[in-house]
Amino acid sequence: MRHRLTFLKVFKMSGLIINKSYNKLLSKIGSTYIQAKENAITEVNIELVKAYWNIGSYIIEYEQKGKIKADYGDKLILQLSSDLKLKHGKGFSKSNLIYMRLFYVKYPKFELVSKKPFWSHYFELLKLDDDLERNFYQQQTIHENWSVRELKRQKKKSLFHRLALSKNKKGILELAKKGQIIEKESDIIKTQVLDFLGFPEQYQYSESELEQRIIDNLQSFLLELGKGFAFVGRQFRMTLNNKNYRVDLVFYHIVLKCYVLIDLKIGEVEHNDLGQMNMYLGYFSAEENRKDDNEPIGIVLTKEKEEIMINYAMYGMTSNLFVSKYQLYLPDKKKFKQKIQEILDNE
Q1: Are 244 and 319 within one domain?
Q2: What is the pLDDT of residues 122-178, one digit of tens each?
Q3: Would you state the pLDDT for residue 8?
Q4: Looking at residue 183, what DSSP letter applies?
Q5: Domain that holds residue 37
Q6: How many domains does the chain have?
Q7: In CATH, what number is assigned to the domain containing residue 307?
Q8: Both 179 and 262 in a single domain?
Q9: Helix H segments across the chain?
Q10: Which of 206, 222, 228, 300 is the most exposed place for a label (fewest CB within 10 A)?
Q11: Is residue 122 included in any domain, yes or no?
């Protein structure tokens, strides 16, 4: 009995140590298992993408050797789909086979195929006819680790065209080749599509309503702003000469390592709006910046933008002050494409 009590005593005394060690062991096993599963999924995806590319090449090779025309090509796909589904299941629908064939057409060299996007990503990318646009979304999917859902969202909102509008021909080609790489302040500026705010058409909203809707939909707004933004606060107060000033929204950009100040305007930007934002930038630089912070960025986000007045009003001001447009509804893709094509053709 005494030995049993001693054993129980030792067990209880050492129980905390065992529990801590056990929790570490449990955590290690769990993380190793999860990582292995993720690695396995990645490897399976790489093999699937390679297999689908090969299947596309086999179809093209067969068509070329047989000199099969378009009408017969459709019949070939239908026949293949019917026979392959009988043997291998749903993965060989007519739609899938068409996209496997298209996969090889758009990526004739397998070296051009990145290992990171899943087949479901490539399925979405292949829906884009324009090579520049497709290349951009492929690079952006890799850079930002987009889900298929996010890729669809960004395509729908014409992210490529909105970014490309502010660039020349060289910039557009670079954007398509490398994606959007945040290296300088102007890289975060684009027309914002705030369709998630839910304002009815023709509704006369106020600036305070606009701000409140953004706060209510902060996650969507952060996604629209892009990668790297962290929310700091709204109606950030600054006191100068016993007078209070407030900037509508304050963010911190973790890539550029600086504060980003946003003032919201529902009408046309006036010159005094720019002077006020410039003062906010001076305050943040002197009063809020920490030792390692870069100079703050100011964005006046407006529905209307008159370029000539803005250029004159900003003469001699900091290059970190920008006027950017927003729109409440999805952009007209045809107009965007026409404008981008004009830039490419004119240069």
Answers
A1: yes
A2: 999 999 999 999 999 999 999 988 999 999 999 999 999 999 988 889 999 999 999
A3: 45
A4: -
A5: 18-112
A6: 3
A7: 3.40.1350.10
A8: no
A9: 2-13, 15-65, 70-88, 94-106, 119-125, 131-144, 148-156, 159-164, 169-178, 207-216, 218-225, 271-283, 307-313, 333-346
A10: 206
A11: no
